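@channel sequence for tomorrow's demo:
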Amino acid sequence: MRKFMTLISEEMEKAFAAAGYDSALGRVTVSNRPDLCEYQCNGAMAGAKRYHKAPLMIAGDVAKALEGSSVFESVEAVKPGFLNLKVSEKFASDYIRQMGEDERFGMPLPGKPSTIILDYGGPNVAKPLHVGHLRSAVIGESVKRIARWHGEKVIGDIHLGDWGLQMGLVITEVKKRQPELPYFDADFAGDYPEEAPFTVSELEEIYPTASAKSKEDPEYYAEAMANTHRLQDGDRGLRALWQKIIDVSVADLKKNYENLNVDFDLWWGESSVHDAIPAMVQGMRDSGKAYESSGALVVDVSEETDTKEIPPCIILKSDGASLYTTTDLATISERERLYHPDKIIYITDKRQELHFKQVFRCARRCGLLPESTELVHIGFGTMNGKDGKPFKTREGGVMRLSTLIADINEEMKRKISANPEIGEEEAERTAEQVALAALKYGDLSNQASKDYVFDIDRFTSFEGDTGPYLLYTIVRIKSILSKYEESTGRKAKDQEIALPKSKLEKDLMLDLTAFQSVMDGAYQDAAPHRICAYIYELSNDFNSFYHATRILTESDEAKRNGWIALLALTLRVMETCIDVLGFSAPDRM
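structure tokens (generated this afternoon):
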């Protein structure tokens, strides 16, 4: 099923051609003056100079060619040369009737699905998730779901920070506290204990303690560096202890991400590609792309068209140590070897833009992947407090993500518990659902690259452009459909959409016709905020229709059944949209 806008643009293009003008002038857009018309075409303005004619004359010719059109109810040429359009009620209702008959609302699947690897998450092991991890997880999960809805094969990877000095620091501090552990005995040849020698809470305290000590004590730092090298060189005991750190951290991370309704297909970390680095580096040397500079191994990634200086990409430091850049490049190489992706998308803080520009250019220059493989970096802005500064606790520290989620859950429970019909257990369950919608929609409704203010009072409001408002709208539709089915014994989904009986009903129908275009645009540009804007408008138009229409008490059965069918389709579309945004709606609130 083709896009609604494509069909009406084609009708306009035919009319331009029939009137003797270039059909390419017939592109139709949504009207920026909905008080005057539903759609508009400005092609006559563009064609005036080319055809040496007043734009109003061209528009008049095209309007005449559209007389009797089954697509447009009215076509009006207005000064200085605009074409104001209203779509035929039958054309609109026939289109959404076809949408309702298809599981995917008429949206076709690609002939050959693309393989996309999505790199998002990026937490460090042995550290708790904090609010800085929210955006990559929330945006990444939605981008993944949107691409899957589009029909692509998407592989989500958390890309853990599980290698390097931070691991040496943790190991060193554990050794100071528990030197008797077998992991530190070079002569130990037996099986290491199954139970980790620390809890996740203890582990989260160990790292900052070790980090602080390393900054004050040169000997401690040197020991941590030595343990890092021993770990990376394959020391049996340290590798076993490191695995315990990973196991404890990942178990906790999975719980936290589950609370966000976020999951990953791969739990790769920097360590996953450690063994692939030597061969990759040697290949760079052999090809002549990598060269020595001040003792370090670098690859030049500058281009003639650069307006700013792009520094060389450092592959190995002067002491031979690898960097984030090195592991990112090795990860690209391994992803190509194992999955042959058509596209790799990275979702990180936008301040990493230069890093990824260097990495992408280096990967291409060194032939780590085919030229056809698309490399994309989606850089997101900062989540700020009401003071406009990065979001902090009241004490000024970085807030744990679990604390933020708990605070929103508590606020939503307080509001939902005000409904006497909802028991405590249901209120708690519902509060978690609505709180997640508040959190995710509050983030996703902003364009990813922009900073935004995290305002818990506004995000948890049941009014305005918020997640709870959308869910309340969905719950309202569910309630109407449920009452209809109870009172009539008929299924809402079995009713047939009829011609609109009012402008508000037609507005709702036209909103639904835009679904394909919105979903396709959100996929092409990796832009969840477009879906947020769409369902907010859809919610507003539904609520306007609802308040003006006595749906369940309508005596005309055919009219009522048509409305019920329209509501059933609206509900399906809205639930699909919130699902790709990563949250769901309760049955009541």
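heads up for whoever presents: The domain at 419-446+454-581 is CATH 1.10.730.10 (Isoleucyl-tRNA Synthetase; Domain 1).
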